[in-house]
Amino acid sequence: MSAAAPLIDGFGRLHDNLRISVTDRCNIRCFYCMPDADPKYGPREEVLTFEEIERLVRVAARLGVRKLRITGGEPLIRRNLAHLIRALRAIPGIEDIALTTNGVLLAERAAELYDAGLRRINVHLDTLDRERFRTITRRDELHRVLEGVEACRRLGYGPIKINAVAVKNLVEPDIVPLAHYGRERDIEIRYIEFMPLDAQGLWDRDRVLTTDDMLGMLAAEFGPLEPLPDADPRAPATEYRFADGVGSVGFIPTVTKPFCLNCNRIRLTADGKLRYCLFAIEEMDVRGLLRSGASDDALEGVLRANVRAKWLGHEINSARFVAPPRPMYAIGG
Ligand code: SAM
Ligand code: SF4
């Protein structure tokens, strides 16, 4: 590996974390992400091949990228994902690979992904209630997600985390049961504030169940939560442990307590665009470069340019905020 200068933006933030979407397609229809019918998927030929992703990651790793997260859409619907995991793990400099999935196909795929070296997994699960799961995802797949989590536990995945999107007037009955579920299994629940990234423009500030609200609900059940003393300051989640020492929970307070100042992430969409923020309007194309025989130096140039162009932070809480043209499933959460 050469000692190329790392990816540092105009505000001094080091970028060593790349989130890679491998598809914009999904097998369920969470209302805060996808439309009910006819999602606008990009043409299949625009989706980066595994070889193209691998090449970009090689260049990114030379620039100091160490952590990868595979996401989507639903990454497990991409065939042979284990091949990609194996190839990415072998890239010099890559130290950590994680996957974010809705878990529907996990029971079937967990073993091959484990064999490919995957250990860290985030499973998206907002509720343990079958009816509410159906309301949220417009599909009846709760049992498969739960089976997927159990399959990962049996195989020895760790850490397993649960991503739970917190929508007000909907998931209040789920906050405490999810925490019990996590504590019983040594799984951290990460409650994620509802963000303005849904395809149907349903987001409204009044529909954000806030981190403070949820902390209050958990404290009423378990006693006051304590901030985790050794939490990574650059991680998006604010983590707390339960007073009795059994387990921890995390919050992604994007709306009420933005954590942009510590951001170390860039994103690659399934169709090969670089984004310096979930909420970015501007994107930079790498697919065209990858497919026109561009050199590694040219790929390095666009990675650097994207990081250099990064803003200080999103402006959800300002009148200037403009929601990005792509919804969550087309960005890669
Ligand atoms: N399909 C996989 C899944 O659901 O985990 C991976 C992609 S999904 C876009 C990544 C994460 O985005 C999900 O785990 C979910 O927690 C989160 N998410 C989706 N829409 C959201 C929204 N409008 N606000 C907050 N989080 C959202
Ligand atoms: Fe699919 Fe994930 Fe979006 Fe839900 S949040 S619709 S599982 S991509």
Question: What does this protein look like?
Answer:
The protein is 31% helix and 16% strand. It contains 10 helices and 12 strands. Helix 3 (106-115) links the parallel strand 3 (96-101) and strand 4 (120-124). It has 333 residues and is α/β, with parallel strands linked by helices. It has one domain (17-331): TIM Barrel (Alpha-Beta Barrel), CATH 3.20.20.70.
Keywords:
16% strand; TIM Barrel; alpha/beta; 333 residues; binds iron/sulfur cluster; binds S-adenosylmethionine; single chain
How are the secondary structure elements laid out?
Blueprint: E1 17-21, H1 50-62, E2 67-71, H2 81-89, E3 96-101, H3 106-115, E4 120-124, H4 130-137, H5 142-155, E5 160-166, H6 172-185, E6 188-193, H7 211-222, E7 226-227, E8 238-241, E9 248-252, E10 265-268, E11 273-275, E12 284-285, H8 287-291, H9 296-308, H10 328-331
Parallel strand pairs: 1-2, 1-10, 2-3, 3-4, 4-5, 5-6, 6-9
Antiparallel strand pairs: 7-8, 8-9, 10-11, 11-12
Bound molecules: S-adenosylmethionine and iron/sulfur cluster.
